[in-house]
Automatic annotation (TrEMBL):
The keyword Transmembrane applies. The chain crosses the membrane at residues 20-45, 51-76, 139-159, 165-186, 193-216. Pfam families: DHHC (PF01529). InterPro entries: Palmitoyltrfase_DHHC, PFA4/ZDH16/20/ERF2-like. PANTHER family: PALMITOYLTRANSFERASE ZDHHC16. Its main location: membrane. Its EC number is 2.3.1.225. Residues 92-223 form the Palmitoyltransferase DHHC domain. This is Palmitoyltransferase. Belongs to the DHHC palmitoyltransferase family. It is a multi-pass membrane protein.
């Protein structure tokens, strides 16, 4: 019983920390980063109140809308088996979840942190503080895509901005880029701060870029993370790249990237799966 209590306590703590992290991203990190880019960086590298200046403001607003919008939709879209009438479906190849004490469809997996089975569970996302599954897969992919684009976009301006304050002809600046945090602790001047922000910019860009391309490649193949990791070959869900995109982004898959508010119905329900005959082994 003690072990079980500690396990439950750890899960609750992790869930609490995830929600704190989520709130910090939405209300602190993203607004802080936006303020730095719009109010400090952009005016120093682009003449204010000109056409290029307004174009960059529009692009920043577009990126912000998609980042925040996809993040909120991703978190509040229910993709669990809760409330689903499962007994009315063909239950061939379903498995029993010992925790939920319920049958679960193909591709559904139990999440200890969410404490439920998730339809087409891809993975548990710390950014969303919930699992990425059948109904919110679209929002996770577009969230990572727009974070990556924002990091690449801002990196161009940040390098131009930082170049105004640092001297490139001595070895100390190289050390600041290699050990930015230590450099900032030792010398908390503006030069060290700006270098640290550029390095964080690069790290976040590389990380989100990896997430986007890795998961988007899985989507094109009709796979989810558990199937990729475990090399599950019992069933193949690859219907071709176009149908695989529709399975995640819906019938309007070609325009969903514009906004998270675009309604794009999914072709299925995450419960029943039509497996192509030539893919079934």
């Amino acid at each position: 019983m003690i072990i079980k209590f500690e396990s439950v306590g750890n899960k609750q703590l992790k869930r609490f920390l995830e929600h704190i992290f989520y709130l910090a991203i939405v209300f602190v990190l993203i607004p802080g980063f936006l303020y730095f880019e719009i109010c400090i960086v952009l005016p120093s590298v682009t003449e204010q109140w000109t056409m290029p200046y307004f174009i960059h403001l529009f692009c920043a607003a577009f990126l912000l809308l998609n980042i925040i919008g996809n993040m909120i939709y991703g978190m509040f879209t229910d993709t669990s088996i809760k409330g689903k009438i499962l007994y009315s479906y063909n239950q061939e190849n379903w498995t029993m979840c010992s925790v939920c004490e319920s049958l679960r469809p193909q591709r559904a997996w139990h999440c200890d942190l969410c404490n439920t089975c998730i339809l087409k569970r891809d993975h548990h996302c710390t950014f969303f503080a919930c699992c990425v599954g059948y109904y919110n897969h679209r929002y996770f992919i577009l969230f990572t895509m727009y974070i990556f684009i924002a990091m690449v976009y801002s990196f161009y301006f940040n390098i131009k901005f930082v170049a105004q304050f640092i001297t490139w002809n001595h070895g100390l600046i190289i050390a600041k880029f290699i050990l930015p945090l230590a450099s900032f602790v030792i010398d908390s001047g503006s030069e060290s701060l700006y270098v640290l922000l550029v390095v964080i910019n690069v790290i976040v860009g590389v990380f989100t870029g990896f997430l986007f391309f890795y998961h988007f490649n899985n989507i094109l193949k009709g796979e989810i993370v558990p199937e990729t990791k475990k090399k599950l070959m019992g069933f193949k869900y690859d219907k071709g790249w176009r149908s695989n995109l529709i399975e995640v982004f819906g019938s309007k898959w070609y325009v969903t990237w514009i906004s998270p508010f675009i309604h794009s119905p999914l072709p299925g329900n995450g419960i029943q799966w039509d497996i192509p005959a030539n893919k079934h082994k």
